[in-house]
């Protein structure tokens, strides 16, 4: 089926291209003439809360004004109308608030309490060292964050953390219209992706899959042997930011790969009313509507709430493959006392794709395929249904002497139902002949997944030997249960080149029971860590975790007489040490080194049917970090070495007895080494950038490269610039994603298939029609590059061709 735009969408597209042409012509001239800020400007800002007014002032004046939320809480501004010089405008905005501005850098100010005994305003009279950004990124316009606790649970800046951290902020997601987790991670420096048939995205960093996802710091688990992987299918409407810590994170998460952890941080209720409504249209009948309302529910603001809802419907560049998403999120936050905050939230995400994405990568003669990007691999009736509900409850209690207790819980419930008719796929095997005769596998499967997790910490400062240090102790618990049942229908042969995705829909009641598959894993742990200031410039982060781990795996092929695979493993008292040393070269730059152990049980089996022993190893990292412009620009360079034993590697030509599944062998002496570079944040007022280069190579003990389906090198770039002067309503941006060559080896055919280096370029423009209304236009894959965005098994997934998206947003 050739998808077409609806008449309305086609009309909007025509208008968008007209606007784009009208915008582009004056941009070059305006960029040259408006770099410097005018001395006197016209302002039209209505009275309101101080935070809201300052946000509008920053946009109109082209400056950044930061203020601690504890100082601005409950304060109002009289607004500003007329022509003013910058210092006059700022003085009038904060008149009567008891605050005064302090210059921290050109075009950057911070409000502090007035220090003059007479109450007179003293511009620049006081120097401060606090960064202008906090942890929350919404509303800052920034591409970085002021603090993060994902790596160590300690509230540190990125520079103070001795590991590599990338943050995709709310502003970055809005600018590039990144609406799904897979889209976000595909743009994250140092992260690469493979994808096999269906909706299973395998996310990699530093040569290993990322299977640990946190929600507001609470750890959840993902098992990539099942297709029930909700964490990679999440919609991003409800999140403030995504933090990705690369490397081993065993101190906080326990058993896991040395790839890293993805922490998604939800939006929280605000003390002042704020809301937006936005809608988007795009290529292939893309339609999206999103609303967000937040604010106080009582006169004092001690009870606050927020509701986010979104709906997305779209066809795709692949024939007969469509997507349907529904998102609803509600959260309440209450100040039970002056020192106690309680938070409860529920989010519901429904994802219903129809058809099946991807194409066969290799023919049965070992030759690589080359299909049109519009091809897909599923019958028109092929369907997947994911229903995910997340319930969270958290409490934060301020204790004496600046100590704090935090307890957070989450319960995730996932239901999946799939009725499939799609191209057959398994590792190292093709199911399509050079003449185009392909095998279509018909199946019906149901899966349920339940996760319960609790995280509790106590942390605070203490004095020792003339220095102030910080200590954290905590415990966490995770219980993951996944049940999968599948039945199969008869395989069907089709002429793949001409089948037009047409296949009679079978009666699934006549399917034959095929498989039942259960995974149950439980992990608990206790940890302690401290940040010890050995001197004003030298800081030691030292910690350890003790973990208990239980893993149960059951697989029964119901159509086979082979005995079920029933495997259980228990590990107790596994100690994971962590050490990091940070030396401050200057107030803005530091060097660091860190170390941690690796421990990961696994379910892969060898050719005798034995489950491989847990992966063990060590993770080393050293690097340099810079934090500039009061923390609004972060830079880092890191080199790392990961050593692992018992790594599962495909044992070519071998299968697990009685199952037909591919067998694996344990590889000792495997190592991954690489380099990460990143620059993120504000280069100058109005100019945001995130750029990163990564090199990662994984080898076995003989020096043979592993994970060849992943690129050795990758580069990510995205930047925006808000014009000044008369063109200050216009923001332009663009970027590129580049991956080096990658490939898969099929030992059955002694053939390697893959692709050369490729780069994808994207552009955007946003125009603020008024203080409340704005529109954003994104042009993706500018040069219409044809490439695989990921491949695995014998499936390849083409990236989207050139496409356009337009979004209109109204902020109340």
TrEMBL record:
Subcellular location: Cell outer membrane
PROSITE patterns, per database record: TONB_DEPENDENT_REC_2, TONB_DEPENDENT_REC_3
Extent of motif TonB C-terminal box: 795-812
Pfam families in UniProt: Plug, STN, TonB_dep_Rec_b-barrel
Assigned GO CC terms: cell outer membrane
InterPro entries: Beta-barrel_TonB, Beta-barrel_TonB_sf, Plug_dom, Plug_dom_sf, Secretin/TonB_short_N, TonB-dep_rcpt-like, TonB_rcpt_CS, TonB_sidphr_rcpt
Domain Secretin/TonB short N-terminal: 63-114
Topology within the bilayer: Multi-pass membrane protein
Keyword Ion transport tagged: yes
Alphabetical list of SUPFAM superfamilies matching this protein: Porins
Signal sequence annotation: 1-30
Major subcellular location class: membrane
One Gene Ontology MF term: signaling receptor activity
Keywords: Cell outer membrane, Ion transport, Iron, Iron transport, Membrane, Receptor, Signal, TonB box, Transmembrane, Transmembrane beta strand, Transport
BP GO terms, sorted: siderophore transport
PANTHER family, alphabetized: FERRICHROME IRON RECEPTOR-RELATED, HYDROXAMATE SIDEROPHORE RECEPTOR FHUE
Family listed: Belongs to the TonB-dependent receptor family.
NCBIfam families documented for this protein: TonB-siderophor (TIGR01783)
Protein's UniProt name: TonB-dependent receptor
Species of provenance: Pseudomonas urmiensis
Taxonomic classification: Bacteria, Pseudomonadati, Pseudomonadota, Gammaproteobacteria, Pseudomonadales
